[in-house]
Amino acid sequence: MLKCLETRNFPLSELKLLASKRSAGKTMRFRGKDGPVAELTAESFAGVDIALFSAGGSVSREFAPAVKAAGAVMVDNSSAFRMDADVPLVVPEINPGEAKKHKGIIANPNCSTIIAAVPLWPLHRKHRIVRLIASTYQAASGAGWAAMEELKQATRAALDGKPFQQEIIPHPYAFNLFSHNSKVDLATLYNEEETKLMKETRKIFGDTELRISATCVRVPVLRAHSEALTIEFERPVSPEEVTAILSDAPGVKIVDDPARNYFPMPLDASEQDDVLVGRIRTDVSDPSGRTIAMFVAGDQLLKGAALNAVQIAELLV
Amino acid sequence: MLKCLETRNFPLSELKLLASKRSAGKTMRFRGKDGPVAELTAESFAGVDIALFSAGGSVSREFAPAVKAAGAVMVDNSSAFRMDADVPLVVPEINPGEAKKHKGIIANPNCSTIIAAVPLWPLHRKHRIVRLIASTYQAASGAGWAAMEELKQATRAALDGKPFQQEIIPHPYAFNLFSHNSKVDLATLYNEEETKLMKETRKIFGDTELRISATCVRVPVLRAHSEALTIEFERPVSPEEVTAILSDAPGVKIVDDPARNYFPMPLDASEQDDVLVGRIRTDVSDPSGRTIAMFVAGDQLLKGAALNAVQIAELLV
Fold first, then answer.
1. What is the pLDDT of residue B160?
2. Does residue A2 sit at the B interface (CB-CB below 8 Å)?
């Protein structure tokens, strides 16, 4: 987040760094100066205009009243308020106008949701998507910095033929993959990550009719999520038209070179603001010509989290 | 293959080990004895009943006439003859009767095709699948032993922060994934691996109407392929019924524990004969109730290759 604020030259007169008691007293570098990290308390928000939260749902819930009471606006990366009717869920390339309707909180969507939504929106606007099937290939970064470190350590142990006890990720992670480690709803049999992608996309698009099914899988990639998307439109749409629409779309970069077999890869998407899109083709299993298949990759930490939050803050300035 | 012949106690009186000139003179252990590897020539097949081929399409094409002339049957793991009209393409759990129709060659299907086909067949038989959408998560083993070694070396170099020049796999592979590295058809925009899955499944099932779309992706897993399958049936089918059918299906093991978040993983599928199936649920994006989503993992080297070939040989005995 600090890097995004720096890179985008965010107009701020003062930056307050707030964290739990455990981290208070540390310093963090911003614009060439070391700033002290203070303990987050209900009194932290006096004089604050925008409070960027990225400490999990319970912290967001605990401090939302204090943020509002101080007249600040919370931009919240957690899932705490995303589906609340009076909380806008904003992707600036898609629904920037929603940000203005806030009542003290603006929610930042789930990372795999944002990465799919950015390229889907301009297609939806032009040709209306009626159904989406998403299979994700999600990186360790989605489970936090500690999970990324654990993937590295588990992998080194596997290469050395040594045992390794994982503590963050509940399944063996070295050279392995597994269904996303969020709770599975025993009624629908979809997990929380999938449910977020399904519900949040409908809310961001303002389209309750859009039918979505997702399969979310964690793969042994460090950073950047990939997704195989099957997109059914209201009417036939050609791959050429999809490419033309996405070539002009904000936040999207076409990486689609069948002759060289070069398509979106998480390594290429890492540390990039844009969502990479490729493998754009007509789904041959739908003879009506209304279905397009494509593959996307986006930086989970940037557009999937910090960058989108800072872009929301920019809408407030 | 030797391990499969041993484990399954394949009834053979003599085993000839054949390879290229480069490997001739080596020995390989089988049933506790070291056997010499001889150079493969057109004269190798005198007195041979079954010739298991796994050396690539060009070798299979070159020696098929010699195998036939000697009165032997070729069981071919390459893609050389799979789509030939007079060559049976056999998965013993699905179409064992086809094996008997051979004219000297029986083809062993593509690995990701077999792994999806084994659990799909009993469902197709009972409720007829009309459409399949597959997103794969394929292991390094599909590109051979050298690719598995390269993944390990590239990953160690990445962990050590050292540069590494890949020679087998054309994209960075450490903590990365990429669209399957087979040639992309510039007309359909599907790659060869996807086209195999689509065409071979229809041939194995004997159903030219079955509509299939696949997205094949190589992930940094050493062994065992996984696939997210979206299966549209002719009529509504419940997850309970799918589970009941697959519980009795040969070559399938249900691993579907939503409460513990435990589902098929390539590490669990490795060195297992069965294809693991889980995440069986109704696809909520199809309100007709005719679509089921599920996730499978199967050993690419066993059921996806050697085991299936040995099972075909068993049909010939």
1. 98
2. no
